[in-house]
């Protein structure tokens, strides 16, 4: 809803800007007085600058959405893997139990929780765009580097169920130093080659990833 | 030189309006290419239009000579 409101607000601002510009172009004399110059300054400089930054922000926010990630054809099976009805499936159990926000499911786990993590994720996204449209998409999509436990621990690290869990308590230091990967034990991640044989879960509202 | 000169606002306005319309349309699309369209055909014309407008303003300033 907020996104729709922002879209309407931006649309209205664009309309106002275009109308102001059209009036000033049609009647250049109107921009000669002090008031006219101020209006021209707002219409030609302030509003377009503000609108461009708001649009950029809107695009960057949208690029974090699950819908955006799954709009790429090659990501379709990864979207389906979120609906697998098996609690051993790591992405599925996170998505279905709201352990990640459903509308930001991909981004939540596939950004890096560092100072420039979001920027790096966006740059990687641009690289993916190039790879996809230049026809270089590999048959098996893999991470660039091993998944860092930091991303898991950014949420689970402080959780009592994790820190005091029987299986974690003895290896906490190893997990924090990446000596042992979370995925060594939680090994069912996406596994898109096996989806056709697995049951899927249907949300009560009918919504699917 | 009086501001605005004939034609200077028309070119700047045209570029800005075109860029803003492309931006508005790209925001309605959920597609990876929408961002590229926003950047290439939305932001670029707006920036060029802004520069054109600023040039028109600076040219209209009184000379110090």
Key structural traits:
heterodimer, A: 209 residues, mainly alpha, 2 domains, 57% helix, 0% strand, elongated, B: 65 residues, 74% helix
Question: What do you see in this structure?
Answer:
The complex is a heterodimer of chains A (209) and B (65). With 209 residues, chain A is mostly helical. Chain A has two domains: 2-62; 76-197, no CATH class. Chain A is built from twelve helices and no strands. Chain A has helices at residues 2-26, 34-62, 66-70, 76-80, 90-96, 105-110, 117-133, 149-156, 160-163, 166-169, 172-176, 182-185. The longest helix of chain A has 29 residues, at 34-62. The two termini of chain A are 19 Å apart. The mean pLDDT of chain A is 87. In chain B, helix 1 (8-26) packs antiparallel against helix 2 (32-60). Chain B contains two helices and no strands. Helices cover 74% and strands 0% of the residues of chain B. With 65 residues, chain B is an all-alpha fold. Chain B has one domain (8-60). Chain A binds chain B through residues 7, 10-11, 14, 17-18, 21-22, 24-25, 28, 31-32, 37, 40, 44-45, 48-49, 51-52, 55-56, 58-59, 62-63, 65, 67-68, 71-72, 125, 129, 132-133, and chain B through 2-4, 6, 9-10, 12-14, 16-17, 19-21, 23-24, 26-28, 30-36, 38, 42-43, 46-47, 49-50, 53-54.
Biggest β-sheet strands, sense, barrel of chain B: none
- Mean pLDDT of chain A, nearest integer? 87
Give me the number of helical elements of chain A: 12
**Secondary structure: number of strands of chain B:** 0
Give a brief description.
Chain A is mainly α. Chain A has two domains: 2-62; 76-197, no CATH class. In chain A, 57% of the residues lie in helices and 0% in strands.
């Amino acid at each position: 809803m907020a996104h729709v409101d922002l879209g309407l607000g931006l649309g209205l601002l664009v309309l106002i800007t275009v109308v102001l510009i059209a009036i000033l172009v049609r009647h250049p004399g109107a921009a000669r007085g002090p008031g006219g110059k101020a209006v021209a300054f707002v219409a030609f400089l302030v509003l377009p600058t503000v609108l461009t930054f708001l649009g950029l922000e809107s695009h960057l926010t949208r690029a974090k959405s699950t819908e955006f990630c799954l709009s790429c054809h090659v990501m379709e099976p990864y979207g389906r893997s979120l609906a697998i009805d098996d609690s051993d499936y790591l992405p599925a159990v996170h998505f279905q139990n709201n352990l990640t926000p459903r509308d930001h499911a991909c981004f939540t786990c596939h950004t890096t929780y560092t100072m420039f993590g979001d920027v790096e994720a966006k740059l990687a996204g641009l690289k993916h765009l190039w790879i996809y449209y230049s026809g270089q998409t590999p048959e098996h999509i893999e991470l660039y580097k091993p998944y860092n436990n930091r991303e898991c621990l950014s949420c689970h690290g402080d959780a009592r169920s994790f820190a005091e869990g029987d299986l974690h308590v003895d290896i906490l230091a190893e997990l924090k130093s990446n000596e042992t990967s979370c995925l060594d034990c939680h090994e069912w991640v996406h596994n898109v080659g096996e989806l056709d044989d697995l049951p899927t879960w249907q949300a009560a509202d009918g919504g699917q990833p | 030189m009086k501001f605005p000169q004939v034609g200077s606002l028309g070119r700047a306005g045209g570029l800005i309006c075109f860029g803003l319309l492309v931006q508005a349309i790209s925001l309605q699309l959920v597609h990876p290419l929408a961002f590229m369209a926003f950047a290439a055909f939305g932001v670029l014309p707006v920036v060029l239009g802004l520069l054109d407008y600023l040039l028109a303003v600076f040219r209209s300033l009184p000379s110090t000579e």
